Protein: Pseudouridine synthase
Amino acid sequence: MRFEFVADRQTKVKTFLKSHDVSKGLLAKVKFKGGNIWVNGVEQNAIYLLEKGDVVTIEIPDEQEHETLIPVKHPLDIVYEDEHFLIINKPSGFASIPSVLHSNTIANFVKAYYTENDYPNKQVHIVTRLDKDTSGLMLFAKHGYAHARLDRQLQSKSIEKRYLALVSGKGELEDSGEIIAPIARSDDSIITRRVHPSGKYAHTSYQVVERFGDVALVDIRLHTGRTHQIRVHFAHIGFPLLGDDMYGGRMDLGITRQALHCHYLRFRNPYDNKEIIQKIPLTKDFENVIIKLQKN
Structure:
């Protein structure tokens, strides 16, 4: 895969490419695994001194598959795809990546999709991961360089993810709010998390969309990406998610997984600088609970 840039200053090739998120590791792959660098059509090395206006072309070698990730054929609900990025609508009930407990995962399904379509890059790069029982939009980079470029956006918090959740608790949830509370592992579990001073900074914003008695439908924006962040934060303020028995959520309203759905995703395509926005509706199990609540 080739990428072309125009130098905006006098500098070495490697310094210029670093400003376009080409890491030392990626340059090493270019050097040793079949890639190349050209300046104005002439082959050059990474320390060549550029002049302003020089055209730099880099060829990145194809990525070989991870043999440990087994392709598993399974239908994918693809909502967006181009040569660099893939966005799917993830169903609940499937983990994002394999583990000791899970082998039939979204990563396995995407690997099978890449293999079936004979994509040149067969490594699966997950940019935004979802919990097993969370549904909604999940973003993949289709090669390592695209992943690196989106990591920069993640670090600068310019990728926007929004979720819809049903929460319930005592008292009344404020119409909108900011939950800023550090999240750490629980002392007695490697899975569950808790709010604790020893944890990492975590920031969640929310706005109530609709109320159904003591249940509220909330639109949530993540500013950080801690494990179980939304679930832990809303349990912390006394309004755990419906169906989330791990964090004290109600189990009597017809949904048996956490009522959490990533419905909105926004990021900037670094290759054409255009904004990509995707939105999807709620799942049936989520909608059925809302219909039931509206009737009460």
Observations:
- The first strand starts at residue 2 and ends at 6.
